[in-house]
Amino acid sequence: MRRLSLSSRLALLFAACTAVVSLVAGVLFSRASEAHFVELDQQLLDGKLMALRRALPDLQSSGSEVRLADELSRQADVSLRITGNDGQRWFDSSTRLPDRLPQTPGLSTISHDGTDYRVLNAPLSVDQPGSPQLTLLLDITHHQHFLQRMQRLIWLTVGLSALATALLGAWAARSGLRPLRRMSAVARGVSAQSLNARLPAEDMPPELAEMAHHFNAMLGRLDDSFQRLSAFSADIAHELRTPLSNLLTHTQVTLTRPRPLEDYREALHSNLEELQWMAQLVNDMLYLAKADHGLLAPRRESLELAEEADVLLEFFAPLAEDARVTVSRHGSARIDGDRSMLRRALSNLLDNALRFTPAGGEIRVRITDQAKGLSLTVENSGAGIDAARLPRLFDRFYRADPARQEGSSEHAGLGLAITDSIVRAHGGRIHCESEQGWTRFVITLPRMD
User: Fold this and answer.
1) What distances in angstroms separate CA 24 from CA 14, 16, 31, 37, 147, one per listed residue?
2) How much is the pTM?
3) pLDDT tens for residues 178-219?
4) Using CA of residue 121, residue 124, residue 126, residue 129, what is the dihedral sign?
5) DSSP H helices in 124-205
6) How far is CA 110 from CA 98, 135, 228, in A?
7) 309 near 349, Cβ under 8 Å?
């Protein structure tokens, strides 16, 4: 069976609740009315019984029949049967009375030939043993008809109220769920070409405002991710275009005429450099793809960061000396991490700092052991980075130097993105600060217990 819509479910729930409440209220009212009629009938019959006892102190006395007829004539819907102590019937005020009547004392209800009676049995004289038995019968047919009409009215009210509540509930639910339909329409219209649609969260009811806010945030993340993916694809094509053009042009020029063997060797060496750079670019992109899917699983081994930093500083020392840049390391700390991955991350930061430090500048590596973890900072002197560019430094193929817009066989703009992936794989964070002639990259790593 097809599942009911949320509006239909709410409408049926409202209708069921209204029907139950109406039915319970109607039953209670019917029971209360019936009990009220019983109380009124009891009072009427008790009053008639007292009047009969006063009018008939002795059935054998003269004039008793006259007083009895006079008393019964005052209440047309009350009948009387008098029976002796031996059960013999002495008197019936009506020929339509049933032959068999309840003999138990007190009030009871019977039905005979379509007529309903309230029956009261009591002795004529309470203090005289063997006193004749008086049976008073009150015609309550009109009471019963009223109760039956009221019950039918109750059922009609229950049905109509349930129907009206179902219709009103459906309308209210449809009106109340309009924001959800609006969200559905926005979601239906979302595509790669229209990720900028947003829900008006301020117009939503409080129950849906938070959902709308999260929905808009999700669309924002999707839009940002799609823009990054599009830019990434364009950057890949841009970066590969230059080396491929170089390879194609160099090969075509080399093959235009016969050349000495040494020229061919030189051309192959040149092509090999371009191919090696392209292979490194592809490897870096595959590395980042693994990071995006959470496939980077660092090995955990106890490392002394000061020793790892010193190894890399020794490697970069000749380049720093040629560039007349001073390098130093301060502080030490131990951490459980992947040696090769951490070395690659620190190497990328040192290479980046060395390229942008002017002659006579300085590069510092600071390691700080803290209570909650450790901090590794690589800072270099020189021209700072515009604050507007800092959030994008870790984007793929992004270069803070606007002059470096073409592909290069030396740097493709993936180093900081790879460093960020390595740091995140270790559960840490990295950010960049640039102020007062110093640019520093700060890595915060958690302590592994």
Assistant:
1) 15, 12, 11, 20, 16
2) 0.52
3) 777 777 777 777 776 667 777 777 777 777 778 888 888 888
4) negative
5) 141-176, 178-189
6) 10, 13, 89
7) no
